[in-house]
Design brief:
By secondary structure, this protein is an alpha/beta fold. The chain has 2 domains: about 220 residues, Rossmann fold; about 100 residues, 3-Layer(aba) Sandwich (Rossmann fold). It has 15 helices and 10 strands.
Length: about 350
C-alpha cells in the first residue's frame, strides 16, 4: 500500500476530518537505531536505541506535528500560519505552508539561529522576522498577534502539533515490539516530551502496551528552567534548539515526569558537544547539538547508578546535524589536513595514520 505520511497511517488516532486532504511530505517512519558501539563501553549491560528524527523531511521531529497542524489549518479555512522559533519549527512550518499554498510568518531571535535552519525557512518562502530578543519574547509576540491577525499559530501551544508528535511513541512501540523501559528526550519548549507521553498513554489505555516508560528530560545547564523551578529570562546554550527559558508545555511536561516517575536533569555545553561528536564518530549518526543531550544525559544517569541493569532505553535525536553546520565544522577542524598535491605526501600522511 502506498505510504502517504502520518495522517494516512494513523488517521484513526488523529483529529483530521478528511485524511485524503492531508498536507504531507511523507514524514515519519524514522529509524530506531541500536547504539551498540556506545553500549559496549558501559560498565553495565543496557540496550540503547536512538530514534533518529533527523531523517524527517525537513530534518527534525517538528514535521510530525506540522503535518497535522497545517492540515487542520487548511480544514478550518486559514490562509496563513505563524510561529516563533529557534529554527526547526520555522523550517518545518515554512515547508508545510509551501506545500499547502499558505503564507508563513516566522519570528526568530536575531543572530541566535543556526544557519541551516534559517536557510530552510528562507528557501521555502516564509517571511522571516528577526527580533531583538529571544525565543520567549518571540513566543509572546506570536500569541498576541494570533489574537489580532488572521493567522494560525503552529507552535506547540497548537494542540494539533502534539497530536502529530505523539505518533513517534507509536512507532517506537511498533519498532521494538513492546514499550521501552526508559525514554530520554531533549527538553526545550517541552512539547515533545509531552507528546511522547500522550502517545504512550494512549497505547497503554488501549492495552497495546503493558506499561508506560519512565520519562527522562534533559536540559542544557544554561537553559534549565525545570531544574531551577522557574522561567529563565536569558537562557544560553550552544544547543540552540533548546535555548528556551519559559517552556510553553511546562504543565504537560511536568505531568509526564510525575506520572512516569521520571525526572529532569541537565548537561553542560561541553558534554552536549562531546556526545554530538561521539555519536558521529562511533555510531555514524550526525545529529544537531540539542539532540545529543538525550544520550549525554543518559550516560550521566548510568554513571550515577540511576539506570537499572539490562534496561531498554530509547533516546530521541530530534534533528539532523546539517541544521547547524558551523558547530559541526568547529568541532572537526583537527581532522582537516592541508598538504601539497603530490603522491608521496598523500601516501606518507595516510600511512602515518593507519
Amino acid at each position: 500500500m502506498e505510504y502517504l505520511g502520518l495522517i494516512d497511517r494513523y488517521q484513526e488516532r488523529l483529529p483530521i476530518d478528511d485524511p485524503a486532504s492531508a498536507i504531507s511530505l511523507f514524514e515519519g517512519r524514522t529509524p530506531l537505531l541500536p547504539l551498540n558501539n556506545i553500549a559496549k563501553t558501559l560498565a553495565m549491560p543496557v540496550k540503547i536505541y536512538a530514534k533518529y528524527e533527523g531523517l524527517n523531511p525537513t530534518g527534525s521531529f517538528k514535521d510530525r506535528g506540522m503535518t497535522v497542524a497545517v492540515t487542520k489549518a487548511v480544514e478550518l479555512g486559514s490562509t496563513a500560519i505563524i510561529c516563533a522559533s529557534t529554527g526547526n519549527t520555522s523550517a518545518s512550518a515554512a515547508a508545510y505552508a509551501a506545500r499547502a499554498g499558505l503564507k508563513a510568518f516566522v519570528l526568530i531571535p536575531q543572530g541566535k539561529i543556526a544557519m541551516g535552519k534559517l536557510a530552510q525557512a528562507m528557501m521555502h518562502g516564509a517571511t522571516v522576522i528577526q527580533i531583538e530578543g529571544n525565543f520567549d519574547d518571540g513566543m509572546q509576540l506570536v500569541k498576541e498577534i494570533g489574537d489580532r491577525a488572521p493567522v494560525t499559530i503552529v507552535n506547540s501551544i497548537n494542540p494539533y502539533r502534539l497530536q502529530g508528535q505523539k505518533t513517534a511513541a507509536f512507532e517506537v512501540v511498533e519498532q521494538l515490539g513492546s514499550e521501552p523501559d526508559i525514554h530520554c528526550l531533549p527538553v526545550g519548549n517541552a512539547g515533545n516530551i509531552s507528546a511522547y507521553w500522550m502517545g504512550y498513554s494512549e497505547y497503554f489505555n488501549d492495552n497495546l502496551i503493558q506499561r508506560r516508560p519512565v520519562m527522562l528530560g534533559f536540559q542544557a545547564e544554561g537553559a534549565a528552567p525545570f531544574l531551577k523551578g522557574e522561567p529563565i529570562s536569558n537562557p544560553e546554550t550552544v544547543a540552540t534548539a533548546i535555548r528556551i527559558g519559559n517552556p510553553q508545555s511546562w504543565d504537560l511536561a511536568q505531568q509526564a515526569i510525575d506520572e512516569s516517575q521520571g525526572r529532569f536533569a541537565m548537561c553542560t555545553d561541553e558534554e552536549i558537544l562531546a556526545m554530538q561528536k561521539r555519536l558521529a564518530d562511533e555510531e555514524g549518526i550526525f545529529c544537531e547539538p540539542a539532540s545529543a543531550i538525550s544520550v549525554a544525559g543518559l550516560l550521566k544517569e548510568i554513571a550515577a547508578n540511576r539506570i537499572p541493569e539490562n534496561s531498554c532505553v530509547v533516546c530521541t535525536l530530534t534533528g539532523h546535524g546539517l541544521k547547524d553546520p558551523n558547530i559541526a565544522i568547529s568541532q572537526s577542524e583537527k581532522s582537516q589536513q592541508t598538504i601539497n598535491a603530490k603522491l608521496n605526501e598523500v601516501e606518507e600522511l595516510i600511512l602515518s595514520m593507519c
